[in-house]
Amino acid sequence: MNKKINTIAVCGLSWGDEGKGKITDYLAQKSDIVVRYNGGNNAGHTINANGIKYKFKLIPSGAPLEKECVIGNGCVVDPKVLLEEINNLKKLGINVNLKLSSTAHVIFPFHIALDGLEEKSKGEYKAGTTKRGIGPAYSDKAGRWGIRIFDLIQPEILKPKLEKLFRIKKKLIQTYDPSWNMDFEPMFEEYASLGEKLKPYVTDTAYYLNKEIDSGKRVVFEGAQGNLLCIDHGMYPYGTSSNPNALGISAGTGIPPKKIGKIVGIVKAYTSRVGEGKFPTELFNDTADQIREQGHEYGTVTGRPRRVGWIDLFNIKYGIMINGIETVVITLLDALHGINPIKMCIGYELDGKRLESWPIQHEIIEKCKPIYREFEGWKKLTSNEWSELANQGYDSLPETMKKYLQAIKEELKIDIAMISLGPNRNDTILLDNELF
Ligand code: IMP
C-alpha cells in the first residue's frame, strides 16, 4: 500500500449550504477523483466555473473539471434526477466520468409520496424536509427492505423485490391518504428502463476507490448537508437521515478511516438553516433580509428562503470535535458587506451559567441564550471589487474583516486554510499552500 495518502474531505460544520460545492471544485483542480458519500438530491451544490453556474444535486462537484466522479454506497439515488444531471452535463459538452456504487439505495416514487405524508403527520416534530424521499429511502435501507442499484439494473432481480416493497408501501401510503394510487407494472417498467440507462456507470466503488487511493491518486470526499443535520450527532429529529460529517465517509464509501487524509471544515461567515428546528443565533429583522439577499440564501433544491443568523462558534467547535477538523475554510465573507455591527456567538448561557459543551438536545437548546462578541463591519463592494481583492491577497482585505477572521481563529483555536470572497473559483485566497 502506498504510504502517502492523498485524500481530503470537505465537511460542512453547520446546517449545510456553507459553500462546500465551491471549495470542492477548487480542490478538485488538484485531484483525480471526487466522491459523494452521503445524501441524495436533497443536496444542492452550486459551482461557478467557465462562466457557467452549475447546480448539482447528486453528481459530485468535480464534474465541471471532468474529474472522475463517484457516487458512493452511502448515497440514496433518484435515477430520474441522476440521468437528468448526466444529460445536462452532456448537453454542455462535458465528458461525464461517473462511477455509481452498485450498493447505493434507490429512491422510488412511493418514497417521495411518503416523505410528504409523514412530515404532515409529525406536526411540530417535522424536519421540514426537501420532500425528495430521502428519509423513507434510508428507512427502507435500515429496515432491510431497500432496493439497491445492483437490483435496479437487473429486471429479474428487481421485479420480485420491488413488487413486495410496493405492496406494503401502497398500503402504508393509503393509511395516510386513501386516495393515493399507483399501478405496479408501469412503475416497474419505467424503473427497469431507468436502470438500463444507468447500467454503464455502475461499479463496485469500494474496490475501485481503495485501489486508486493505494496507487497514490488524489481524492476529494465531498460531504452533503452539514454536521448539525447528522442523524446521529445533529439536532435530532430536525435533520437529515444520513451522516453528512466525516464520520459518514468510511461507511458511505468503503474507505477505511486511516485512508482519510485531511478533513477540512467549511464555515460560513454567518449561519443559515432551511427547514425546522431551533437556531439560537437566528435573526428576524432587516439585517436578516440584507444577509439573505447578499448571500443569495434561497434553497438550491427547493427555492425556499433560508433562515439566517450570526455565526455560531459554539456549535462549530462541536463540529470540529465530531469531524476531527484540522483546518477551516471561511466562506461568504463578501455577503456580510455593509452590515454593521457584525455579531459572533462564542458560547451559550443556560440559567445564568455558561455551558461547557454544545447541548445537542433540542429541548435544552431552546432555553439557551447566545453570548456574543461584536465587530465593526466592512463596507459594501461590487463583485468585481471583491474578485480584485481576492486576486491581491490577504493583505489587501479590509482591516475590520481581518480582525473578524483573527477572532474566529483564536476562538476556535484552529488555522484558516482558505477564505472565499465570491462565487467564482478565483474569488478565493489560499492561506495554506500545503492544504492539498
Ligand atoms: P431531508 O434531507 O430532505 O430529509 O430533509 C431533512 C432536513 O435537512 C430538512 O431540515 C432540510 O431542510 C435539511 N436539508 C437537507 N438537505 C439539505 C442541504 O443540502 N442543505 C441544507 N439543508 C438541507
Q: What is the secondary structure topology, with strand pairs?
A:
Layout: E1 7-12, H1 20-28, E2 33-36, E3 45-49, E4 52-56, E5 68-71, E6 76-77, H2 79-91, E7 98-101, E8 105-106, H3 109-122, H4 134-142, H5 149-152, H6 155-176, H7 184-198, E9 202-203, H8 205-214, E10 219-226, H9 247-253, E11 262-268, E12 271-273, H10 286-294, E13 307-309, E14 311-312, H11 313-323, E15 327-331, E16 342-350, E17 353-354, H12 362-365, E18 369-375, H13 383-392, H14 399-412, E19 415-420, E20 428-430
Parallel strand pairs: 1-10, 1-11, 2-5, 2-10, 5-7, 6-8, 7-9, 11-15, 14-16, 15-19
Antiparallel strand pairs: 3-4, 12-13, 16-17, 16-18, 19-20
Characterize the structure shown:
This protein starts with 6 loop residues before the first strand and ends in a 6-residue tail after the last strand. The longest helix has 22 residues, at 155-176. 48% of the residues are buried. The strands form five sheets. The protein has a ten-stranded mixed beta sheet with strand order 9-7-5-2-10-1-11-15-19-20, sandwiched between helices. Strands 14, 16, 17 and 18 form a four-stranded mixed beta sheet that branches. 35% of the residues lie in helices and 20% in strands. The mean pLDDT is 96. The chain has helices at 20-28, 79-91, 109-122, 134-142, 149-152, 155-176, 184-198, 205-214, 247-253, 286-294, 313-323, 362-365, 383-392, 399-412, and strands at 7-12, 33-36, 45-49, 52-56, 68-71, 76-77, 98-101, 105-106, 202-203, 219-226, 262-268, 271-273, 307-309, 311-312, 327-331, 342-350, 353-354, 369-375, 415-420, 428-430. By secondary structure, the protein is of the alpha/beta class. It folds into two domains: 7-78 and 206-430, Alpha-Beta Complex (Adenylosuccinate Synthetase, Chain A, domain 3), CATH 3.90.170.10; 105-201, Adenylosuccinate Synthetase, subunit A, domain 2, CATH 1.10.300.10. It has 14 helices and 20 strands. Bound molecules: inosinic acid. Residues 15-17, 42-44, 127-130, 132, 134-135, 224-225, 229, 239-241, 274-276 line the site of inosinic acid.
